[in-house]
């Protein structure tokens, strides 16, 4: 019994060393009395160790990573209902106040900032305020198209930098922006003030006549048609040269851009 | 280990980057462990993903009380595999021909696949506990102390089991070789 325990300890020590890359012979030299018994066991252990060459397929690994990161973000969002209870007008007012305090120079500089810049949150906040203060749904929709264009440029910038997490994050913002655009187009066709935006433009004297609205719609359609083709083509071109680690997120961005633009154009039909 | 403890604590406080680092550190090991247990690539992919999603949901319940994070994670993987096999009502599954290998050399790749298929076939002749110890020790390369934690046994018991598992595997490999001649 004691001998068994001692042998098991020796075997385990040799296995540890074998896993660290030591040769069988070195271990046998260290324990010459047990060498005959050890040798076949260590050879078998080496055969078993060959299983460690099993690797997950690269595309599965990338897909799994993307899905896990998405689940991770979703879980984090659920844990932090930041400002979710705040009325929208109060959020907008707070952001406007912060921007006012930040100064017009900061706001102007933030306009062209990218997601890795400290000014980027100012850029997003400015966009929110501008969107809320834009009077008519069709103008809001046009502004959303412009913002979607900015998001695509940011995705390309971060993809070239190999930052998968940022690409995923901005893709979600792109998706939200294009979805808002669809809601705005549908709402203005119904002649309703959109629920998620600034109040009562018609009473405030901002409503547009039938011809002007048709012109705006035609202009928006042209913009969207151009952006849909141009942005997806650019994203596909970036995909070819992007680092492997970013490709799954970039593919998702392309799919979301294509679907989002398609829905927006259908809403305008 | 201290670094890992820090990562786990941060992950429990919803730090995405910390969780992502733990994921990267263990993904391949868990995948190999599951593949070894199931012998099928596609099934192993599904189970591996599920293991990490379960980990995400239950990480707040993990407590550092001398139990390494790896032991807890492999326990989740073990339970996931057991549940899966129970639902499928079978103890083993057919081998997949496309078992992956890291080597790009076609000849070596083919040899590796044969080795792995022969090995997986031989392990079916082992007891569940023997298969578990071989998998944790040689596919996932866990130290004996962590294997003991995963299996809920003393280190001495695991060393004895490891010995008997290697002896049994040697005999099973000889039988498998005879059968293929």
Instruction: Quote the average pLDDT of chain B.
Output: 83
Task: Assign an overall shape of chain B.
Answer: globular
CATH architecture of the largest domain in chain B: Orthogonal Bundle
Greatest interface (CB-CB under 8 A), with counts per chain:
A-B, 39 and 46 residues
User: What's the story with the biggest beta sheet of chain B?
Assistant: none
How many angstroms separate the termini of chain A?
A: 85 Å
Q: Could you spell the SSE succession of chain B in H and E letters?
A: HHHHHHHH
Beta-strand segment tally of chain B: 0
- CATH domain topology of the largest domain in chain B: Rna Polymerase Sigma Factor, Chain: A
Radius of gyration of chain A (CA) equals 30 Å
Secondary-structure class of chain A: mainly alpha
Description:
The complex is a heterodimer of chains A (269) and B (181). Chain A is mainly alpha-helical and 269 residues long. Chain A folds into three domains: 2-53, no CATH class; 86-133, no CATH class; 134-268. Chain A has eleven helices and no strands. Chain A is elongated. The N and C termini of chain B lie far apart (47 Å). The longest helix of chain B is centred in the last third of the chain and has 26 residues, at 155-180. Chain B is an all-alpha fold. The relative contact order of chain B is 0.11. Chain B folds into two domains: 1-96, Orthogonal Bundle (Rna Polymerase Sigma Factor, Chain: A), CATH 1.10.1740.10; 104-181, Winged helix-like DNA-binding domain superfamily/Winged helix DNA-binding domain (Arc Repressor Mutant, subunit A). Chain B is built from eight helices and no strands. Chains A and B meet through helix 1, helix 3 and helix 4 of A and helix 2, helix 3, helix 5, helix 6 and helix 8 of B.
């Amino acid at each position: 019994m004691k001998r068994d325990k001692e042998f098991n300890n020796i075997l385990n020590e040799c296995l540890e060393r074998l896993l660290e890359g030591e040769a069988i012979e070195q271990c046998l030299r260290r324990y010459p009395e047990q060498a005959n018994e050890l040798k076949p066991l260590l050879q078998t252990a080496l055969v078993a160790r060959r299983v460690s060459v099993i690797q997950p397929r690269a595309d599965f690994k990338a897909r799994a990573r993307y899905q896990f990161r998405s689940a991770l973000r979703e879980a984090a969002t659920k844990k932090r209902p930041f400002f979710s209870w705040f009325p929208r007008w109060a959020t907008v007012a707070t952001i406007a106040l912060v921007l006012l305090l930040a100064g017009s120079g900061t706001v102007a500089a933030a306009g062209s900032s990218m997601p890795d810049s400290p000014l980027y949150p100012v850029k997003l906040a400015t966009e929110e305020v501008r969107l809320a203060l834009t009077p008519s749904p069709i103008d809001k929709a046009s502004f959303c198209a412009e913002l979607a264009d900015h998001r695509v440029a940011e995705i390309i910038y971060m993809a070239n930098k190999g930052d998968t997490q940022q690409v995923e994050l901005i893709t979600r913002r792109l998706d939200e922006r294009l979805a808002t655009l669809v809601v705005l187009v549908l709402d203005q066709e119904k002649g309703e003030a959109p629920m998620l935006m600034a109040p009562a433009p018609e009473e405030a004297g901002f409503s547009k006549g039938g011809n002007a609205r048709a012109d705006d719609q035609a202009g928006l359609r042209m913009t969207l048609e151009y952006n849909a083709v141009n942005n997806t083509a650019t994203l596909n071109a970036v995909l070819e040269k992007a680092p492997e680690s970013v490709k799954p997120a970039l593919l998702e961005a392309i799919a979301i851009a294509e679907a989002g633009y398609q829905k927006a154009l259908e809403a305008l039909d | 280990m201290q670094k890992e403890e820090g990562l786990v604590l941060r992950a429990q406080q919803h730090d995405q980057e910390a969780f992502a680092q733990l994921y990267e550190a263990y993904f391949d090991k868990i995948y190999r462990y599951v593949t070894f247990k199931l012998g099928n690539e596609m099934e192993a992919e599904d189970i591996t993903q599920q293991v990490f999603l379960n980990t995400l949901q239950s990480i707040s319940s993990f407590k550092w009380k001398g139990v390494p994070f790896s032991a807890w994670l492999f326990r989740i993987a073990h339970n996931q595999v057991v549940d899966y096999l129970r639902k499928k009502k079978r103890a083993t599954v057919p081998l997949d021909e496309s078992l992956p290998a890291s080597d790009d050399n076609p000849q070596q790749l083919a040899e590796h696949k044969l080795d792995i298929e022969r090995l997986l076939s031989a392990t079916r002749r082992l007891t569940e506990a023997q298969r578990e110890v071989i998998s944790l020790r040689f596919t996932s390369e866990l130290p004996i102390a962590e294997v003991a934690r995963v299996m809920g046994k003393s280190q001495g018991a695991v060393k004895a089991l490891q010995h008997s598992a290697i002896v049994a595997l040697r005999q099973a490999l000889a039988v498998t070789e005879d059968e293929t001649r």
